[in-house]
């Protein structure tokens, strides 16, 4: 019996069974590639065959330097370290996704499954800190991708970086959404006693189902709150980052998120409005259509209302908070909640004066 013809249909390039537990729905080609690809059903039903699971791979990423510098006037730090490229947490909204396009990979599923690790980062960092003329300033750890993502449990690069910074009395801030940071409380508590560290935990929703769809391999909301509590008990200064706030999706949780963080002992808060540069706008739309089709149009229209009618505006100072009536309403609600809860404290200032490279092998003590 011959098969009946079925017209071609466009489908996601990786089927749901193969990408279970991932954030993105596609492996869309990066913007620098010459050719764009699209999977479709040719009518022979082969596309519905059982797909192999999407596995995470890790490759070495070598570099002459590990400290990245920026001159952005709206960022509170001028240097950062990212032990990993790509992030297995799979947060669909992650602003770092487009960076995978520079590697010839997809900002979609490749970003969360084809990872790169800077295995020699601690040794390279030590060389950089010993350079003549190096002037210390707070290093932000894990800004582009989470320094405590799941593969850190195996490779321990972040912990070794912290050991180097501690030995040099170098101040550092950390941002994460992983409970794995608690593994390093011994180092962090010691650095906190010397006013050398602060930590921010990202908390996007108290709705476990929403959090799991947005951030499929990140810690649950309850574990993040427990992490904040553990850090505070260890006297590590903390901030809760309700980032990103997504209009029409999680922005109604502002008060509840801040209250939960305050109950965990945190006295400072910040937020970032959803950013959709480059490929993220398409990835996020695909995700909305798959998980929240009933409100996808509303969410996108609200986001655009905070970006001058566009998907994104990269202008300094407004890219993180947006503009327009809806963005102003979010800002006012956030500020009011912070004042009510006593979470409008100024940024914690870390000690820069204690920086001192330890003696290396072969060094002699100074006579003076």
Structure description:
The protein has helices at 109-113, 121-130, 152-155, 157-167, 185-193, 208-214, 221-233, 254-263, 280-291, 296-305, 325-341; strands spanning 9-10, 40-41, 57-60, 67-69, 79-81, 84-85, 114-117, 139-141, 172-176, 197-202, 238-245, 269-273. It is of the alpha/beta class and 368 residues long. It has a single domain (12-33, 54-341), classed as pyruvate-formate lyase- activating enzyme. It is globular, with a radius of gyration of 22 Å.
How is this fold's topology laid out?
Blueprint: E1 9-10, E2 40-41, E3 57-60, E4 67-69, E5 79-81, E6 84-85, H1 109-113, E7 114-117, H2 121-130, E8 139-141, H3 152-155, H4 157-167, E9 172-176, H5 185-193, E10 197-202, H6 208-214, H7 221-233, E11 238-245, H8 254-263, E12 269-273, H9 280-291, H10 296-305, H11 325-341
Net shape: globular
Low-confidence blocks of residues: 1-12
Order of helices and strands: EEEEEEHEHEHHEHEHHEHEHHH
CATH architecture: Alpha-Beta Horseshoe
Tell me the strand percentage band.
5-15%
Helix content: 25-40%
The helix tally amounts to 11
The count of β-strands is: 12
Radius of gyration: 22 Å
* Order of adjacent strands in the largest pleated sheet: 4-5-8-9-10-11-12
């Amino acid at each position: 019996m011959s098969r009946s013809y079925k017209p071609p249909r466009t489908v996601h390039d990786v089927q749901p069974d193969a990408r279970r537990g991932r954030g993105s729905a596609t492996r869309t080609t990066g913007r620098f590639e010459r050719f764009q690809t699209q999977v479709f059903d040719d009518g022979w039903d082969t596309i519905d065959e059982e797909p192999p699971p999407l596995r995470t791979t890790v490759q070495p990423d070598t570099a002459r330097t590990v400290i990245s510098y920026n001159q952005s006037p709206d960022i509170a730090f001028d240097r950062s370290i990212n032990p990993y490229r790509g992030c297995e947490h799979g947060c669909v909204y992650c602003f770092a996704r487009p960076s995978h396009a520079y590697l010839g990979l997809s900002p979609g599923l490749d970003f969360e499954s084809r990872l790169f690790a800077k295995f020699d980062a601690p040794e390279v960092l030590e060389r950089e800190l010993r350079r003549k003329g190096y002037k210390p300033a707070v290093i932000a750890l894990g800004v582009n991708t989470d320094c405590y993502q799941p593969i850190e449990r195996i490779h321990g690069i972040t912990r070794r970086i912290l050991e180097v910074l501690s030995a040099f009395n170098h101040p550092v801030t950390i941002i994460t959404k992983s409970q794995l940071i608690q593994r390093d409380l011994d180092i962090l508590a010691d650095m906190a006693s010397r006013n050398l560290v602060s930590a921010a935990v990202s908390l996007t929703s108290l709705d476990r189902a929403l959090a799991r769809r947005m951030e499929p391999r990140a810690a649950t909301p309850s574990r993040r709150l427990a992490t904040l509590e553990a850090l505070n008990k260890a006297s590590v200064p903390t901030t809760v980052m309700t980032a990103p706030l997504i209009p029409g999706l999680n922005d109604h949780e502002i008060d509840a998120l801040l209250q939960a963080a305050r109950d965990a002992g945190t006295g400072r808060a910040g937020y970032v409005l959803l950013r959709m540069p480059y490929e993220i706008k398409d990835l996020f739309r695909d995700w909305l259509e798959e998980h929240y089709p009933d409100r996808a149009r509303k969410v996108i229209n609200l986001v655009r209302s905070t970006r001058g009618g566009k998907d994104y505006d990269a202008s300094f100072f407004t890219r993180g908070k947006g503009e327009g009536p809806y963005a102003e309403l979010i800002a006012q609600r956030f500020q009011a909640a912070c004042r009510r809860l006593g979470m409008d404290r100024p940024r914690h200032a870390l000690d820069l004066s204690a920086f001192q490279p330890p003696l290396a092998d072969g060094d002699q003590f100074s006579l003076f």
